[in-house]
Amino acid sequence: MTTDKIHNNISLVRGAWSVVAALIIIPLFFSACSKPKNEIVEGFKDAAAVPTLRSLDVLTFISDSGVTKYRITAKEWLMFDNAPDPYWLFPQGIYVEKFDPMFRTEASIKGDTATFFKNRQLWRIDGNVHIENVKKELILTEQLFWDQRSRTIYSDSFIHIEKPEEVIEGIGFVSNEQMTNYVIRQPQGIFPFKRAAADSVAADSSGAVAVAPVQRTNHKIRDKQPEKSVSKK
User: Fold this and answer.
1) What is the pLDDT of residues 1-38, one digit of tens each?
2) Selected residue with higher pLDDT from 232 and 152
3) Is the pLDDT of residue 222 over 70?
């Protein structure tokens, strides 16, 4: 075999291998280009800070031993079941009604925000808290705690109570759930008061209760049980 023929054979072999390589590489290239780009999404670093459920425009009833006791109305309800102390948060306000066995309203509470600690069965309601009891007394404060286990409502904040004939003000109180039997820890004054004949509280055109703003207090906020030494009337 001459040198020219050897070179020709080598060229043919190289050409054949080039064609084979092209047939293998080109499909792989187009296949790789056609696949979508995948990105790794990192999980939440703090699962406790992420709500496990979010509900809007909430209207729900809560029962105890098969009897409907409460009705809750709220614009937003966030559940944080993964938190060390699981809780529900109502960041856009809350309105709670408590019913007697005949499904009549015994008391109502509303506030700017509310937190319910599930394991402790403890409510904390903050900001422009309004309470009205069956006696049509209006109680105003900036923060209160409602312990469903001990069936007590209490606060360390300033409190303003409007009765049909007088106004009572003070710092801190403890009461039953109906807000009909309460003790003010630091009374500051009792003032004569006469409500308008139309109603116990004036209402604006939207139906919202119109009341004077409640002064704020710098007293320490707590979320524990009231002291046992506090006596009730």
Assistant:
1) 554 544 444 454 455 555 445 445 545 444 444 445 54
2) 152
3) no
Contact between 125 and 141 under an 8 Å Cβ cutoff? The reply is no
Which residues partner with 72 through β-bridges?
A: 60, 96
| Choice among 9-13, 172-176, 181-185 with the minimum mean pLDDT | 9-13
Q: What are phi and psi of 134, to 5 degrees?
A: -70, -20
Which string of b and e fits 188-211 if b means at least 16 CB within 10 Å? Answer: eeeeeeeeeeeeeeeeeeeeeeee
Tell me the whole-structure pTM to 2 decimals: 0.65
The two three-digit tokens of residue 150, written as one number: 């001990």
Q: In the chain, where are the structural domains located?
A: 1-31, 49-192
CB contact at 8 A, 48 and 80: yes
- CATH number for the segment(s) 49-192: 2.60.450.10
